[in-house]
Design a protein that fits this description.
Elements lengths: L5 E6 L5 E6 L4 E6 L4 E7 L6 E6 L5 E6 L3 E6 L4 E7 L4 E6 L9 E6 L4 E5 L9 E3 L7 E7 L4 E6 L4 E4 L22 H4 L3 E7 L5 E7 L3 E6 L5 E6 L2 H10 L8 H13 L3 H4 L4 E3 L5 E5 L4 E5 L4 E6 L9 E7 L11 H5 L3 H6 L5 E6 L5 E5 L20 H13 L3 E6 L2 E7 L5 H12 L10 E3 L3 E4 L31 E4 L11 E4 L12 E7 L1 H8 L3 E2 L2 E2 L5 E6 L1
């Protein structure tokens, strides 16, 4: 579960992680086990809704972008946040665009100005290495990378779909169609619709779209961009089929009316980007959420093979899907001798545990489906978070969490710094720090003042020592206690005199007894001390580092 509505689910190929994101900016990592999944780690890297997410073709990189105009880059294998990009404009879509085995990971980020910016996926260079300014005339809302053709396909809110290569001249590759007029890519313009999602099949030979407002699922041949199949999920069609009794499943009229009302809600801007269509590993089946449940459609026979979640009345409307079909234990190459062996350990390693994961409209859970038919319904619901039912309830829970912060991890571009907090000694300073951290206030800020053998200082949005404010919008009083600056790596509030605390703080690198009863001590660094020392030794000009050292984010634990 999440504490807010779950927005996206992603399985990482080859590395077998499930990554779930929610609308409050939280990202959770889960690891596939022999049976089921196991929680690994949680991040709150964004202050607000997450606009888009992407997993690289090799399954080793994950990226997210949010309304806070930041991009967060994660290393999947170590489940660690490794970099942050600060954008000038609100992003609209994100996609990894490098092939498996590439030496340099490449990340494409579209924004509200119709641009697609190309970034170094390692985060070492925070400036775009290329910009596509004329490819689209309207904001790009979906992108997908085809590892087989080394080609990106992108669509905008106006219904235009483009092919381009993420290198050289960023033109359409020669391995696909020659003239766009010979394709069916203009079908969206003809129907005055736009794709809300693009999905490449695992074989790379096809791609599928879901579009609004026509509510069509389309399957295209990738090379020719010719339409292969089209499935009508419009409200008019499903209403007609319900009345005629020709739907794949007949439901009661009252229930159908309730489902129809929900179906209209998913066209909202906040939901439409989450709807997707996915392929199975063969590329012959597509899966998508519908008014009746999750449809599994055989695109060869053109029939609905299965209807999942049809009886799950509490689940509601399925929105975002992710499918795992691997063998959790099978990682090494299988030799002829191994294949012919009767070794039970080798046979067990080849066992599969397929799993479909789905989000649902306005639900804080995600739902998992597997091939085990013996699941006890009374034991299957897992509550790993206390759900928030109202905005008021959410605020109460959040306030309680803020008051209970006792430790923090500063993720910086130089490494992680672990801090023990002292809420008993400095309750207001800790509350101010923890609240700012959870709200993302410190994200992207630099260490603007560094003095060797003394301290490193940060927390100023202006980056020059003149800015910052407390969570109360005013300066707050000092909190002097029995704690002293008698040890290095003490964390204290910076100020401009008595009772002028705001958001800036510093970490000492030596004993500094002359600061006692002048600066409020609210924590001490306990790990990553080498990172603090390393920052204190960088080259500076007038106490400001020549190279920006940023706080990626602060995790409260």
């Amino acid at each position: 579960m999440h504490r807010d509505n779950v927005a996206f689910t992603n399985w990482t190929p080859f590395t077998d992680f499930l990554i779930t994101t929610s609308t409050d900016g939280v990202i959770k990592f889960w690891k596939k086990q022999d049976v089921g999944i196991e929680f690994v780690k949680m991040f709150k890297p964004h202050a607000g809704d997450i606009v888009g997410v992407s997993v690289s073709a090799d399954g080793r990189s994950f990226a997210s972008c949010g309304v806070d105009k930041t991009v967060r880059i994660f290393d999947v294998v170590t489940f660690d946040l490794i970099a942050m990009l600060t954008l000038k404009h609100t992003p609209t879509s994100i996609c990894w665009v490098h092939k498996r085995g590439a030496s340099l990971p490449i990340l494409a980020v579209a924004n509200e100005l119709n641009q697609i910016q190309i970034f170094d996926g390692r985060g070492e260079n925070t400036q775009p290495i290329h910009e596509l300014n004329k490819l689209h005339r309207k904001p790009v809302n979906a992108m997908a990378f085809n590892n087989v053709f080394d080609c990106v396909i992108s669509s905008d809110v106006g219904g235009m779909v483009e092919y381009w290569q993420p290198r050289d001249d960023y033109d359409k590759p020669s391995s696909v169609f020659e003239y766009k007029a010979e394709t069916n890519l203009f079908d969206f313009k003809k129907t005055k619709s736009a794709p809300t999602s693009l999905t490449i099949s695992p074989t790379g030979l096809q791609f599928a779209t879901f579009s609004l407002p026509d509510r069509q699922i389309r399957v295209f041949d990738f090379a020719s961009a010719k339409l292969v199949r089209s499935y009508d999920e419009s409200i008019e069609t499903i209403t007609t089929m319900q009345q005629a009794g020709t739907a794949v499943q007949k439901v009661e009229d009252v229930d159908f009316g309730r489902r129809l009302a929900v179906e209209k809600e998913i066209e909202a801007e906040s939901v439409r980007s989450k709807i997707n269509v996915i392929f199975d590993e063969s590329g012959y089946f597509i899966l998508y959420g519908s008014i009746l449940g999750i449809k599994v459609v055989n695109t060869v026979t053109n029939r609905v093979s299965r209807l999942l979640a049809k009886d799950e009345t509490g689940m509601g409307r399925a929105v975002n899907l992710a499918l795992y079909q691997g063998a959790p234990k099978k990682k090494q190459v299988v030799t002829l001798d191994m294949a012919a062996s009767s070794n039970p350990l080798l046979q067990e390693a080849g066992l599969r545990d397929p799993m479909l994961v789905s989000t649902a409209h306005n639900k804080q859970r995600f739902y998992m489906f597997n091939s085990d038919g013996d699941v006890n319904k009374s034991e299957r619901d897992i509550y790993n978070e206390k759900p928030t039912t109202t905005a008021k309830g959410s605020a109460k829970i959040e306030t309680k969490a803020k008051e209970s912060g006792t430790a923090a991890i500063l993720h910086t571009t130089f490494g992680d710094i672990h801090i023990r907090l002292f809420p008993e000694a400095a309750p207001k300073s800790v509350e101010n720090f923890v609240t700012h951290a959870k709200n993302g206030y410190y994200n992207g800020l630099i260490f603007h003042r560094v003095i060797p053998k003394f301290m490193i200082q940060t927390g100023d949005p202006f980056g020059d020592g003149t800015g910052g404010e407390s969570i109360w919008g005013r300066e707050f009083e000092d909190e002097f206690s029995t704690l002293r600056h008698d040890k290095p790596y003490t964390v204290s509030m910076a100020n401009a005199g008595p009772n002028t605390n705001a958001s800036q703080f510093f970490i000492t690198v030596e004993k500094t007894p002359w600061l006692d009863n002048k600066h409020t001590i609210f924590g001490r660094a306990v790990q990553g001390l080498d990172v603090v020392t390393k920052i204190s030794q960088v080259r500076t000009h007038k106490d400001k580092p020549l190279q920006d050292i940023q706080i990626i984010n602060i995790e409260i634990v």
